[in-house]
Amino acid sequence: MGKKKGDGNKDNPALWERFPEGEELATKLRGAYHKHLEGLAILVFSKPEAAKSKGKINVAKAMKATPILKAALRHHGERIDYLIVVGLDEFQPMDAKTKEAVIDHELCHFVGPDDKGNMKMRGHDVEEFTEILERHGAWDSSRYYFAKAAQSLQLGLPGTTVA
Question: Helices marked H in the chain — which ranges?
């Protein structure tokens, strides 16, 4: 009999927990850089292992709260608009500056409510292949401004991304 989804540690909901360290970082960063998110309920959860996709590690993931999750938490006297899920195996060994960058990245996905009160998400500014940048450079304005901002920054570890 094959292994069912949810049998392993990374997918076992019993091992997922609220993550106070992540929520403290989110609160700090929201006050500094994400004022448009003030008043929204953003919860951070941890799971044992970071997700892996196409050979890359996704340390964290940002999501809108589903209607069922909103209803479940409302039943328990709590509110949620957005959530962040962090993989502890990758997040915990990071230094404080990198942890802050991960949570800040996830907060950038959150736009806030539209005129109907529906929470909106934002995608990444740039998606590109490394070899295209190597061969053609920053060939349009989004890539140019992204590359210009990145020139003076210390790069993260190869093979890791945040989603």
Answer: 20-33, 67-75, 88-91, 96-108, 130-136, 141-150
46 band by pLDDT with thresholds 50, 70 and 90: very high
In whole angstroms, give the CA distance from residue 69 to residue 34: 23
The pTM of this model reads 0.80
Pairing of strands 42-47, 82-87: parallel
Q: What three-state secondary structure class fits 56?
A: strand
Amino acid 1: pLDDT: 46
Cβ(58)–Cβ(51) below 8 Å: yes
Q: 3-class SS at 111?
A: strand
CA distances from 56 to 44, 62, 134 (A): 22, 17, 20
Tell me the average pLDDT across 20-37: 97
Do 108 and 119 touch, CB atoms closer than 8 A?
Answer: no
